[in-house]
Amino acid sequence: EAMTLGDRIVIMRDGYIQQIGTPQEVFNNPRNLFVAGFIGTPQMNFFKDAKLVLKGGEYYVEVLGQSFKLGEAQQKALKANGVPEGEIIAGVRPVHIKLAENGIPATVEVSEMMGSELHLHVITENGEKMIARTPTIRMSNEQRGSLKSGAKVYLTFTGKTMHFFDPETEENLLY
Questions:
Q1: Cα–Cα distance between 20 and 156 in angstroms, integer?
Q2: What is the DSSP-derived secondary structure letter of residue 117?
Q3: Are 23 and 5 in contact (CB under 8 A)?
Q4: For every residue of 31-76, which 3-state class applies, written as one string?
Q5: DSSP strand E in the chain: where?
Q6: Environment class of 137 (CB within 10 Å of its CB; exposed 0-12, middle 13-18, buried 19+)
Q7: Is the whole model's pTM more than 0.70, yes or no?
Q8: Residues 23, 48: Cα–Cα separation, whole Å
């Protein structure tokens, strides 16, 4: 993610500072839902029907009918913050969503060619809209051409690339 901005940026909302950091820090570790949605193109995908669950002392996120085990750093942060099980807002950046053989079934609504990548605007079976940024460098023309409006695709991502927000305060649960 190349960002050609200053050394440090300040994200403000209604006259209040939301976060200060390098563009990369703010992109990787957004403090809250507003910052997460503000930085990055296309915008982060947000899932409001996600759940954080503990199984055998490990955190998982249940979203879009799938269960994702979280990474080590996330496990530590959530435990350190004493985050309980429950409803959350999960966020996944379009660049972290991959096409897969199986995964979350979706239908392409719009496929935008953006130089060396496709921006796939999809809708899942339960009506959730998502955007995936897919590099085209390893795709055949046939593959690229097949990813058009109406195409059925399967999408996947990992727990490690997800962000978690408190539905009430909208604060990032990892910080």
A1: 31
A2: E
A3: yes
A4: CEHHHHHHCCCCCCEEEEEEEEEEECCEEEEEECCEEEECCHHHHH
A5: 9-13, 16-21, 45-55, 58-63, 66-69, 86-92, 98-114, 117-124, 129-135, 152-156, 162-165
A6: exposed
A7: yes
A8: 26
User: What digits encode the pLDDT tens for the residues 75-115?
Assistant: 999 999 999 999 999 999 999 999 998 899 999 999 999 98
According to the model, what pLDDT value does residue 145 have?
87
Q: Which residue in this structure is represented by tokens 């053989």?
A: 101
d(CA 157, CA 162): 8
Nearest to 63 by CA among 30, 87, 85: 87
Tokens 């055949």 correspond to 140
Please tell me whether the peptide bond between 42 and the residue prior to it is cis, using omega within 30 degrees of 0.
Answer: yes
